[in-house]
Amino acid sequence: MNFFSLLTEIYIILLNNNYKLLVLQTNRKFKLILTTIFFTISLSCLNAQDLTNFKQNRSSVHGSFGTTGIFYNSSGITPRKTPFSYILNGNLVVNLKGLVLPFSFTYSDRNKSFRQPFNQFGMSPKYKWITLHLGYRNINFSKYVLGGHTILGAGIELTPGKFRFGAVYGRLRKSTNQATNIYNPLNDTIISFTRKMMSFKIGVGTNKNFIDLIVLRAADDSASISPTALEKGVFPSTNFVTGINTRLSLTKTLHMEAEAAYSIYTSNQNSIFRMEIPDFVQKIIPINISTKGYLAMRALLEYRNSKGFKFGLKYRRIDPGYQSMGTYFLNNDVENITFNSAFNLMKRKMNFSGSIGLERNNLKLARSATTKKLIGSAMVSYNPVKFFGITVNYSNYSINQQAGRIQIADSVKLYQTNGTFMVMPHLQFLSGNKKVSHFISLVYTQMELKDKNPSSIYNNSFTTTNNILSYNITFLSLYLTGTLSFNYNKVKMSSGNSTNTGGSVGLSKGFKKGKINLGFSINITQSKNNQQIMLVTTPALTGIARLGKHHSFKLKANIISNNNKTYNHSSLEEIGDLSYVFTF
To answer: ∠ CA 307-313-316 to the nearest 5 degrees?
Structure first.
């Protein structure tokens, strides 16, 4: 039995009967893709390239180092932060005649009693088409396989010609037996295993046109925490994910993107109920009664031309429960299809963009109800002259539940529409021989949630209106800027109304041709509802100083004064940040 036939049998065990024919048909295509990739690799290896030309390149070293002290004091409320904390960070880029070695680190004393302090060191040296990753790195092979997750380990990426290769090995998560946050009265307890992974990417093409095959295997170390964790229902997991990612320009105006991944996730690798699969496969893909298979995919077909006109069709489907250890979180149990369009008129003075589509969940009919949504949005901006413009944005989302495994009672059925309308005119002009700049804007936003279920319309429907009027004036030669704004917010509900009314004023002044800048602002907001009246005052002071080419300081201090007039209670918070950055 060859590897491809064995892999197909494993997939059939995990997939529903509806997927069997799809997997068998995909097997032949999968073989063809791998054959094409390995053939291209062989051709790439035959073309030798000159990697060293040191005499024409110059060496250089540059970077920065920064430190920030954070001060906090409060009265009248429970402290939300420690009285003092600090953060150290820096980056260094060394260029040795074309060999680029970037270094970076971050260190903080925060949360020492909760999990681990945020201390990360890493580097990604690069030379032509060779990139190395060492330490804490964030490597992105695929959105559904390995993307957005911080890894402590080592990796390499090679792009000689049209050959694309990547490999990474490291730790995704460090074990924690117990962690307590002394500033959280709930005293959370967190238990997790050390989690390690390895991932490979192999493909052909360029950044504009490529096809990649990605494989990831990750597993928890069952010996990394105390055995008592098993008594609390925490079990080590294993994950094996395969995926394909591609981007192709079919013609000059027609483009395609597609990405798909299949995740085999074993939630308890120590389960004694195992499948009848050869031992060497079990070492790579442990499969037992806790193993499940998940599919995720997305596709885009888009037309766009040089005149700014484009329209496209998007499709996305993620199985319920889909997860990959190489990503933090993906919204699952969702399927949607949307049509997108964008164009401009009147010599680009008017621009339009919008989309409309359908979305649903309950893909495996495991929920008691299926929720369907009509999703749509549109934005129009019009700038007839240089000093005036207006933007209008509208979005509407409808939700309608239908019966799934059981019939839905009318009293709990979800049937809602959520519409948002926003209009923002703005005016910008110069006066005083172009020495004074003025900017005036008005933002009006209304969001309305309508519950169309007669049994719940009284409690769930509401309307929110928000208005912001702002004015900004800048004296260019004096480095002096003043701001003034007013805001009004009202929420109308069947249970009562609430309003927020306030404004802010600010002034900033630059010295030494903008190298030193001082600013002061104050914001006052009054909130009213059926129960109480609150008055919040927030004065803030900022300062920035750039001394020479290497030194810069930044100061930020603000006070949050909260006065509850109804209960005659007040609280005060004082927060200050002082930072220094040395650049070389």
So the answer is: 140
Q: Which two tokens stand for residue 493?
A: 């509900």
Contact 78, 184 (CB under 8 A): no
Position 491 scores a pLDDT of 92
Say yes or no to pLDDT of 412 above 50: no
| Residue 406 burial class via C-beta count within 10 angstroms: exposed 0-12, middle 13-18, buried 19 and up | exposed
550: which residues sit within 8 A by CB, 6+ positions away?
582, 583, 584
Give the separation between CA 55 and CA 53, rounded to whole angstroms. 6
Both tokens assigned to 193 = 């295993």
Rounded to 5 degrees, φ, ψ at 529 are -145, -170
Euclidean distance between CA atoms 216 and 436, whole angstroms: 58
Percent over 90 (pLDDT), the chain? 54
Can you read off the two tokens belonging to residue 547?
A: 């001394």
Residue type, 448: E
Q: Which DSSP letter does residue 119 get?
A: -
In order of 222, 248, 406, 502, 522, the CA distances from 472 in angstroms are 60, 46, 58, 17, 15
State how far the Cα of 397 lies from the Cα of 457, in Å rounded to an integer.
Answer: 17
b/e 422-443 (16+ beta carbons within 10 angstroms → b): bebebeeeeeeeeebbeeebeb
Residues 52-61 have pLDDT tens digits of 444 556 788 9
CA distance 326 to 311: 32
Q: Judging by DSSP bridges, how do beta strands 238-249 and 150-158 pair with one another?
A: unpaired
Give mean pLDDT, residues 273-295. 81
pTM: 0.71
C-alpha count within 13 angstroms, C-beta hemisphere, residue 494: 9
Which pLDDT tens digit goes with each residue over 315-325?
999 999 999 99
Residue appearing with tokens 């105390």: 226
Which residue matches tokens 């030798």?
48
